[in-house]
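Input/output pair, single chain:
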Amino acid sequence: FQPVREYAGARLSTPVYTYTPVLTDDESTAMATESEQTTITVPGMIDETRRDYGTVLNAFQGRPSRDDIELVLLGRPVGKYGERTLERCEVLRERGWAVTTFSDWIPTEEFSAQLARTDLLVGPLRESRPVDGFREYYGRTKGSGVITDALRYGLPVALPDWYVVPEAIEPAAQ
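Output:
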């Protein structure tokens, strides 16, 4: 992961090596078939320190529901924030929105199948998060699985404007 290599390389006198592990098989990464419905997926744990789900849910709340859009929160809830987020999703369902959520760990096969039917990934990342007594910064010292998911499944991804796109994939970012 280039941002981590640059960040650490500027602070350490020893070489820094990084990698992004990607496991794949032809079946799980097959392109989604055409569908009448647009599926917007937010992959990853519903954790207040990692993602801002409020921004995503606010985009749906207060608007008339649409049959041609499904929102999927593809991660398990963490703590009270996760529970409140699922409660907000239930309110959206009651208003007619198609919202899919999960209450526990998602098996790899199900996670992959959901990504294979996704049209747009959304990564409402927090700019930084505390990790073991220090701060990690997305795009600089910490990568996000949403980037790997986008590459693996050939999907467009919406990210915050502050996110630093890794140089190696910058030509694909528009």
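Strands lie at 38-43, 69-74, 98-100, 120-122, 128-131, 134-137, 157-158. The chain is about 30% helix and 15% strand.
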